[in-house]
Amino acid sequence: MGAIPFSYLAGRLKGIDVRQHGSGNVGATNVTRVVGVGYGVLALLGDVGKGVAAAWLVSAWQVPSWVAGLAVIGHNWSLFLRFTGGKGVATTVGLMLGFALWPALLATVAIWIATVLVTQYVAVGSMVALLLAPGTLYLLQTKNLEMIGLFFALGLLTVWQHRSNIRRIAQGTEGRIFKRRS
User: Fold this and answer.
1) How many CB atoms are closer than 10 A to CB 117?
2) Is residue 138 part of a domain?
3) pLDDT tens-digit profile of 43-76?
4) Distance of CA 137 to CAs 25, 48, 91, 127, Å?
């Protein structure tokens, strides 16, 4: 289920392969930049929906919660895209939503918004928010070590998937969300 490339499909609705444009990433941010906000929202809903569905299935089937993390793995390395894919942020947020981790989810989104506003980088906001997600889970929601461990691993995976963004930030070539007027 995680391998369904909703962001790629959203771009294809307009005849665009998002892998060939913008950052080349198969994710909602690149879809928004390349194809437009409406298509980006569609991609975001699909990618979040994968996480929600995975969390729901794991809960319904009463299997360990870490199994839901495989939806993020499928998103990042989709078999439909020859084992390439996105960065897993929206699908990870979908897991939080699907597991009904509302206080931690709201705190994570607030951290993301604040970080993006301060740094003007979506990638930095995503990395900071998901690296802090295990702490927000622990402080606001649950002491369940399996759940905290899942989001700790997914936070580290998020940083790994953003290594090209980190390089571009260091080089000063990463796109900012708000362009400053000169």
Assistant:
1) 11
2) yes
3) 999 999 999 999 999 999 999 999 999 999 999 9
4) 28, 19, 17, 16
Q: What is the pLDDT of residues 77-133, one digit of tens each?
A: 999 999 999 999 999 999 999 999 999 999 999 999 999 999 999 999 999 999 999
Residue 39, in any domain of the structure:
yes
Q: Which amino acid is at 14?
A: K
What pTM was computed for the model? 0.94
Indicate whether 179 belongs to any domain.
Answer: no
Contact by Cβ (8 Å): 158, 166: no
| Residue written as token pair 């509302």 | 102
**CA-CA distance, 171 to 58, in Å (whole number)?**
41
| Number of folded domains that form the chain | 1
Q: Which domain holds residue 117?
A: 6-171
Residue 56 lies in a domain: yes
Closest CA to 91 of 110, 75, 111, 107: 75
